[in-house]
Amino acid sequence: MTPHMTREGTTVPLEGSLLLVLVCFLWGANVVSIRISNQGIPPILAAALRSAIAAGLIFLYAARKGEAVSFPRGQRRHGIIIGFLFALDFLFLYWGIAFTTASRSIIFLYTHPFFVAIGAHFLLRGDRLTLSKIAGLILAFCGLLAVFAARSDDLPSRYWIGDLMEVAAAIFWAATTLYIKKMVQSRSVSHYQTLFAQLFYSIPVLALGSFLFERSCSLDLTMPVVLAFSYQCLLVAFFSYVLWFWMIGKYSVSRLTAFTFLSPLFGVLLGSLVLSEPVNTLVWFGLGLVGAGIYIVNRPVPGKEQ
Question: 212-236: per-residue pLDDT in tens?
């Protein structure tokens, strides 16, 4: 918890729970919006533009609240590393959805908590794997196997490339989380600084990736594409992140993160309803195992809430 955060209580009241469900819905719908925007904006370019727009919004919002967004001199290397890891996360996230479905993408992406749990065991003080966490990891792994095994004639021909890229995105997301957690153990850094660093320093990496891999791609800015991309910038990268960090300041982090299993659920439902993606029984079974694993890994431990 940063010096700028205060917690008024550990339990999450009804209004807080409703806001948390809203955040999870926005995150779940994000992969659907990426699938739509990829139809008119090259995916890596979209990720770079998203970072640039959201960074500008965070800068203006933080300035209005009198908060600094830059790392202190001598610590900016940490911001650069955070931005680099974040860039790789979103490069694989956006690019991977071009190969597979949104429904499969979000299930693989939300293996993030399990990579965090494994990494924290070796890298963070006082954050060891317990029997319940190991049980959650096993459930999640079985869920991944189920989704990998799911087949459908409607799947893209190279869907497995996208599946693996989404797993890579989850790994780099976990690496970003672990680096930030490790850093704040010995430094006073606000969430404005870490969020801005992720967005701002990811821009050159994503821009370079777009230049190298998407030079032959063109834009097709239809209304659905523009609306989907605007959703990613305004509602996800700006609004939902600010709301999430505000809730972290009021409530127990462990109780909040236990709810994140809702994001892949919303993502799969919306992928099926909005994009008419194939979601067979094996995918639903895998989603259930992954969701249960997320909850078990993140569920609050009495006396150890953060």
Answer: 999 888 999 999 999 999 999 999 9
| 304 assigned to some structural domain | no
How many CB atoms within 10 Å of residue 13? 12
User: If you average pLDDT over each of 118-132, 140-154, 271-285, which comes out highest?
Assistant: 271-285
Task: Tell me if 3 is assigned to some domain.
Answer: no
Q: pTM for the whole thing?
A: 0.85
Residue range of the domain that includes 288: 14-298
DSSP labels, 220-287:
---HHHHHHHHIIIIIIIIIIHHHHHHHHHHS-HHHHHGGGGHHHHHHHHHHHHHS-----HHHHHHH
**Cβ(87)–Cβ(206) below 8 Å:** yes
Tokens 């996360």: give the residue: 89
Tens digit of each residue's pLDDT (9 = 90 or more) over 83-97:
999 999 999 999 999
1 in a structural domain: no
The verdict on residue 44 lying in a domain is yes
Q: Is 102 helix (H, G, I), strand (E, B) or coil?
A: helix
